[in-house]
């Protein structure tokens, strides 16, 4: 392994809570490892890599994103098989990480199943290998450290929950401290060895602290009162399961050990709670106790990656923040429309909670091309990530050479090898199985009629669509946007990968006029039909956002009937759909629900969306 | 090595920001590369390929697939490290830094490297066959249309760029090797956007537009025609200018380690970053490094406020887009106001 000179841990400015969380993880594997979250460029990786020189005999093993499964979990030892015709287990990274620390950068980019399997092994402390004719069991006691940038997608709650600790890295907001960061980096770049020497004493101090804490840890007994306190704290935070209590106690013990004490103080429990509870806090019956500001981050990552608590609301722009009366007067300046057909441009409700669109379409054997992250697919191009190898069905198009060799290896003693060292026969051939996630196509059909124009409502609608777009960005989906109002429907954005453009279109979307719902649905059908010609294996999802109050139709007939007719056609075409009902008038007509039924859609009201933090809106597709 | 003719860097009409950004990265490979945005036909690729001619020579360990730097013991590959341990004097030769292209269609195996098939069959042993990241070590890694690159290749690239090391755990091979490179990407924004995470990796970014003055456009065409007619003669015309630029790059490289910056300026940059609310700390660090490089390029050791101002213009624009959709623009007035207080 390439040896790296690292930026000294002690020279990293601030970030004290992350530093402590990392130290807890390296001292005590039972604390459950740590998940470090923060925006890009906040020294997440630097912090973890800097750990390497203070952990003593404990190594930090890094798991690259491109790792194949057999390399992580272990497999057949190729050289042994070729040389001696013997099936012997070659340990993977997981086995090598026993009694060490396993570090995964950008853990949120890895496949969920993969992270699950890894965490499972780490939590049970053993790993069973059953592959290539080998059956083996090895210990895997280690701490898992993961880093992530929530902007690129969050982790599922069960995965977060299996990490004992959570720490948020924040950017420094104090100018002198920022200047100090730059100063130290410049000094390090100029003379790494000299710089490290300056911090050698501090580094040695931390190394000794860690070593002493490891010695001390087994001697720290947890008194009954602390167990009680842990239970109380967890109950107060409404955390599910009992993992939290254990993590809390182990973290507290480790904090005491790091402080050089062999007994626990209530303060240790409080300090531990900052890392253990925030991400597990739930809002049940009563609101949870107010968390210190840095703790709030934890909950945030789980629920709404960047909105809310953080200072600057992401989508708000001053020019859109006109007060109601001003927007009315500006509308009045426009050429007179038909009666109440005044155009308004509502801004976007930036506080709208994150909405996750999750497809539960089964992974089929069909191979798809394309990019994205939402749906797992097999891929027939050589583009995907090589995860494992399999026996080819038909011709070998993408030879998995490593697996082929392993298949051939045990037979070498009996084969005629000619000048080579290995003879390969047809039956040994293995095909690479590559996986990539492809995005789905979400076509948003948004009602922009006058009835939607009430400022607050449209704000919320835009907020909801925006929240869904955020999810679409993270999953690399394709999106399209159709708006209908006045007499027609307009394709504002043909299906594109640029979620950015969709958001822009949405921002400038004016409302006003009648509600040609049928036109909107017809336009959607046309867009999808055209799209299908181009990409036959696309699985589109139509997201209709409306109050359903159709009041105009192309042939002058009944708007509702016409809309229902097209809705039925959409259902027949096998298009998955979701209806988000925006109706909020006192007298509810429930028309959107009727349309949803006709279209075979999943149905949600706007209220439902904003009530729940994570809404799996597309999960229960029929 | 065969030498295919490239259009001389100094013959490119206009596009001063792009040329400057490239030159700064050649002087200081720690700047973090450059993202060049612009429409088709604005000499983006020409400029990147043309910079190859001006790249300085460097010492490299002979026969090392990663052309390790004999002077940097910390970044040697395992092989070189082992050999230096046994016998201090490794054969060294001088090679030119070069531009390594990463095709958009490149597969993950080609990028990170893979199992050496021939070696395995002949000797029954595992051996690592280095990929593009190995070639890119200490060189310029150029990705044309970087916004079209497959996500998982981007991930791998970011992984390597973050630490300057490519770690491979696949196809039966566990291997890691140094992979420090200057990342240069070009993109046409009309064809889709680029992930903020990747965006943030680029030290500098510039936007190129076609020349709009008729005389300049005519000049562009004239030079192109002359180049196509006789590459040799064309190169001759610009030889002197190329030589001058190459010399000043070398001089700047020598001067860079002496660059000093005032504490006031450090504080100013911190305040700019806070006022503009940029993500993380990479912006501050890069502005300062770019300012130091600009000073060195101007033949000075001390950084002046104007260096910082120019650096800010190259470093900050692409960091304004804080959220995936946010289309932030650089509020230059804010920056100027802070400078005025100096």
From TrEMBL, chain A:
PROSITE patterns: VWFA (PS50234). SUPFAM superfamilies: P-loop containing nucleoside triphosphate hydrolases, vWA-like. It comes from the Bacteria. Residues 338-347 have a biased composition (Basic and acidic residues). Gene3D superfamilies: Magnesium chelatase subunit I, C-Terminal domain, P-loop containing nucleotide triphosphate hydrolases, von Willebrand factor, type A domain. Residues 441-621 form the VWFA domain. Residues 281-383 are annotated as: Disordered. One of its GO terms (molecular function) is ATP hydrolysis activity. Residues 294-310 have a biased composition (Low complexity). Coiled coil: none annotated. Belongs to the Mg-chelatase subunits D/I family. This is Cob-chelat-sub: cobaltochelatase subunit. It comes from Sporomusa termitida.
TrEMBL record, chain B:
This is Mg-protoporphyrin IX chelatase. InterPro entries: AAA+_ATPase (IPR003593), CHLI-like (IPR045006), ChlI/MoxR_AAA_lid (IPR041628), Mg_chelatse_chII-like_cat_dom (IPR000523), P-loop_NTPase (IPR027417). Belongs to the Mg-chelatase subunits D/I family. Keywords: ATP-binding, Ligase, Nucleotide-binding. The lineage of its organism: Bacteria, Bacillati, Bacillota, Negativicutes, Selenomonadales. It holds the Pfam family Mg_chelatase. GO terms for molecular function: ATP binding; ligase activity. PANTHER family: MAGNESIUM-CHELATASE SUBUNIT CHLI, MAGNESIUM-CHELATASE SUBUNIT CHLI-2, CHLOROPLASTIC. Gene3D superfamilies: Magnesium chelatase subunit I, C-Terminal domain, P-loop containing nucleotide triphosphate hydrolases. Residues 30-212 form the AAA+ ATPase domain.
